[in-house]
Design brief:
single chain; about 110 residues; alpha+beta; globular; 2 domains; 5-stranded antiparallel β-sheet
Length: about 110
């Protein structure tokens, strides 16, 4: 699962043989924000310099499900990209917009 929020971008997976979910990010600050806003009990952030996602944490499935609920309930913006620009800056909003354009190609038949 990919999760794009106005405070960070995450990839969430369940590794084979593990009970907890692994929440991965390319930017440490994204996981720090996730912890600050929704998962204060989140464990230590692991860093692996050459991994596909450099930063990761493990989180119990139920705790993450509750955080997702809270994230959804906190949505108050009418425009996602504007909210990203306001909270994370225009450079991050441009990155998200690039992803939006690529995915829009699936809708229009130009990208898939």
């Amino acid at each position: 699962m990919w999760l794009m929020t106005d405070f960070g971008f995450f990839s969430i997976v369940k590794k084979e043989g593990e009970e907890n979910l692994t929440v991965r990010a390319r930017v440490r600050q994204d996981l720090l924000e996730l912890r600050r806003r929704y998962l204060p009990g989140l464990g230590a952030i692991e860093e692996t310099e050459y991994a596909d996602y450099r930063f990761r944490v493990r989180v119990p499935r139920e705790a993450f499900a509750e955080a997702l609920r809270d994230i959804a309930l906190d949505i108050e913006y009418p425009n996602f990209k504007n909210s990203v620009a306001g909270k994370q800056g225009k450079a991050r909003a441009r990155v998200y917009e690039d992803v939006w354009h690529r995915l829009h190609g699936l809708q229009t038949g130009d990208g898939g």
